Amino acid sequence: MVTSAPEKKRLLSVDALRGFDMFWIMGAEGFFAALFIITGWSVFEIFDHQMKHAVWHGFTAYDLIFPLFIFLSGVSIGLAAKPIKHYSADKRAGLYRHAFTRLSLLILLGIVYNHGWGVGIPADIDQIRYVSVLGRIGIAWFVAIMLVWHLSIKNQWLISISILLGYWLLLECVTLGQFGGGNYSPDLALNVWFDQHMLPGITYRNAPMDPEGILSNLPSIVNAMAGVFVGRYIKATQHQAQRLFVHLFAAGILILVVGYLWGRIMPINKSLWTSSFTLITIGYSTLLLALFYLVIDVWRIQTWAKIFAVIGMNSIVIYLSTSIFNWQYLANSIFGGLVSSVPEGWSSLLLIAATLLLQWLFLNWLYKRNIFIKV
């Protein structure tokens, strides 16, 4: 992990969208439940439902947060990375070193986010949850950067398509014991066999399979590669802003249509990270980026965007802090008198707002001092 200022000009829309993505897991997802209590309006109940993960099959807005982050990591690759042959030998060594270090750190930090082994020292290695959100981000980014460095663009496309189709056929056609063979249940999907036989340590809540388990890493790579393709297209076409927006918007709609049609055959499922889920999240991610790019980088309406960019520039820091630091306790310590003096719905709303404010002020303090902690 290093601390440094950004080295090159960045697209504000990408940083703002990353910050917007993180905003919802900093505590903002609770706004709609509080607003429903205050107003009784059913629209807020609907929005609140969208701020919870689908129980198994299906899709909600909250299910997009994780794949959107992976997609944006791919966009950054597409905007900056080149085939490895374009770099000098010394530069290549540094790039490889950085890639392996980043992968290792994200896996390690993911274990920290999961509170390590959970039983204290001395460690019981069988009680460690090795897989995590950060670990999956690291794996998807690592594979994507390797593909960009070493393969032609045509082959990058072929591998991405092959992963989606291959993963579908794998879950649909392969049977191992009682698992697989088109079974997409939480107890008998093929992923369960892989996690029970090949995944060390424990699974999330000791379930039969882990939502960040072994097999579902494969399609998440395509989320990163889709970001690469979009980032590369932005870099090549940003001088034609209107055309870029139209093409990204059209691509997003088309991918969504294909994803939802595929979902009639292969269930849309985040825990299994099915190919249909992958396409749907790529479609929504592309649409969001197209909208943010139009408003922020083309129309230059940027004041609001900088609020989210402050979060996006130190996204890993704030993500980790939500696990290892009790922001709500701090907010209640400072604003508890005000929070307790208002009715129940308003108290929840004020506490959420205060928690978000403290987190944002911390990130803004880092931002103003050009402290950007990157992995």
TrEMBL record:
The keyword Repressor does not apply. Keywords: Membrane, Transmembrane, Transmembrane helix. It comes from the Bacteria. The chain crosses the membrane at residues 21-44, 64-81, 93-113, 133-151, 158-179, 214-232, 244-263, 275-295, 307-329, 349-367. This is DUF5009 domain-containing protein. It comes from Thalassotalea algicola.
